[in-house]
Amino acid sequence: xxxxxxxxxxxxxxxxxxxxxxxxxxxxxxxxxxxxxxxxxxxxxxxxxxxxxxxxxxxxxxxxxxxxxxxxxxxxxxxxxxxxxxxxxxxxxxxxxxxxxxxxxxxxxxxxxxxxxxxxxxxxxxxxxxxxxxxxxxxxxxxxxxxxxxxxxxxxxxxxxxxxxxxxxxxxxxxxxxxxxxxxxxxxxxxxxxxxxxxxxxxxxxxxxxxxxxxxxxxxxxxxxxxxxxxxxxxxxxxxxxxxxxxxxxxxxxxxxxxxxxxxxxxxxxxxxxxxxxxxxxxxxxxxxxxxxxxxxxxxxxxxxxxxxxxxxxxxxxxxxxxxxxxxxxxxxxxxxxxxxxxxxxx
Amino acid sequence: xxxxxxxxxxxxxxxxxxxxxxxxxxxxxxxxxxxxxxxxxxxxxxxxxxxxxxxxxxxxxxxxxxxxxxxxxxxxxxxxxxxxxxxxxxxxxxxxxxxxxxxxxxxxxxxxxxxxxxxxxxxxxxxxxxxxxxxxxxxxxxxxxxxxxxxxxxxxxxxxxxxxxxxxxxxxxxxxxxxxxxxxxxxxxxxxxxxxxxxxxxxxxxxxxxxxxxxxxxxxxxxxxxxxxxxxxxxxxxxxxxxxxxxxxxxxxxxxxxxxxxxxxxxxxxxxxxxxxxxxxxxxxxxxxxxxxxxxxxxxxxxxxxxxxxxxxxxxxxxxxxxxxxxxxxxxxxxxxxxxxxxxxxx
Lengths: 347, 347
Fold this sequence. Notes:
In chain A, the strands form three sheets. In chain A, strands 3, 4, 5, 6, 7, 14 and 15 form a seven-stranded mixed beta sheet that branches. A six-stranded parallel beta sheet of chain A has the order 10-9-8-11-12-13, sandwiched between helices. In chain A, strands 1-2 form a two-stranded antiparallel ribbon. Chain A has about 350 residues and is α/β, with parallel strands linked by helices. Chain A folds into two domains: about 1-120 and about 315-345, Quinone Oxidoreductase, Chain A, domain 1, CATH 3.90.180; about 130-285, Rossmann fold (3-Layer(aba) Sandwich). The two termini of chain A are about 25 Å apart. Helix content of chain A is about 30%, strand content about 30%. Chains A, B: This is Enoyl reductase (ER) domain-containing protein.
């Protein structure tokens, strides 16, 4: 048996301002069952997770040894997390027809190497994508890195309508009972959802001309914890409002990924706040908490069942030819909640 | 009894680029014993500690509520830490002739309000100034904030020939036994002392045209802990070399105090390292560890006695009229070790 697969390769790593035509290239491959090695499977990809981090994996300016995972080099297939259905298996743990979650490729069919599969999909595939990536980031950012407790009065979340931010706001409000949750997002429509659906007490549009004043007005008692998915101007403003011993949790830096070379976001006055107010800034990668994934997914699943944490998703249908457009959507902030590409058959 | 005192006032808070004539004003006051309130003393000032933080207390750009102590406003007397001899006392704990350490003023004689005195001077007044300010910053920065242990292989110290840096390097090498201590300073003469006297394995001159390459060459195995007294370019370089879970301890930012408005020191690539390498950046003020001062001063005193930590001082003689020049000396980096003004009688 043989499958004709279409797969996106990285033609040339990109600097700032992603141009998908220059960066990616679609190739056609034959995947033959006879070529499978022990432990490998052939998978039909059904859902691709769109994550900001993917943009960083193909940035020319990256220094390879300073990334948390190998970059994707020129001529290598583009990777992602996602869900696929096994169509051929030489792995005794997985049978034909199994839906699995793990590392996949930008492709319609692919061979999954040993170790790519994390788990079988327990229910709705878009749930596990949302929980297993953004949910975990929100969970460990709040619980482990931020060590947030109900004693914390004011929490600010940047990129609050995004995949991680929308869950962060809801856990802060509905699980931890934080009194004052401030979300920052990039449109009035997103801001409306922040307060109506995601548990924010105040929502701020960072594109508003009065954003700086709005930010100050929204944090009259200063900030205990700043959950940062964005970096840039919002981070600079937040540093000027942190309480003594305030914590800044760095989960992402989406404003940086497509504009790497711009400098000067953190001003000197706000840097000095780190000293004056004994601020702690700390970054993390969810994989450092791998031993606690089961517990975290259990908690998140329960909260979702109870309706305390709504998994906000934006699933868009795409033919394999259109897959790179998902990265553009993310960088333009066109999503609310977790952006997921649902692969549909092309005409 | 009455004393004619000369005291420096802040005429006008200053922005960038300190001009001492515009900023300070010397006034003459009569201090009368009869005016002393209960608990007050009249003191003859003998040693004034020159600390970078004093520069920040008079910066126009400061937002008052964002400082760790009240700024010194226009028309108020300039403050400092230092040693004085009590000449008149209405405080039962302190007698005429006592040498005391605590908050003083830029003056030859002054009235010390209740609570200004921290302790009687146990020995050489310049020792307690060095230990009680810079020594404590080095101690708590390493031991408490950085939580440095001999497991840490590489430590980088900025402003390493300065008052805090010189002690930090020695504790790291001679007490904690850190394998690779890298000090950064601003002249070849300072660099020579770093390796010969202060325990550094490598010393780097940040004014050298090859500094960036030198920095990379000096940290081939990356950095466990960066003890930062400087901020700016050195911080940016260090962030690019931190190990997984590396710690950046922010003790000071001397490169910022006289050039507040310049932006753009922390570049985007190095900020993203906070995420990729799970870096923790943390600031502190020694007073947050006040309960541990006695233990810390005991340890530091013992290490000094044993010759493991040499207290590096630069004591300069000044008439009261020349006191503001000490601040200039610090900002220009003219000191090695703790800069202390010894007040001498005018001609």
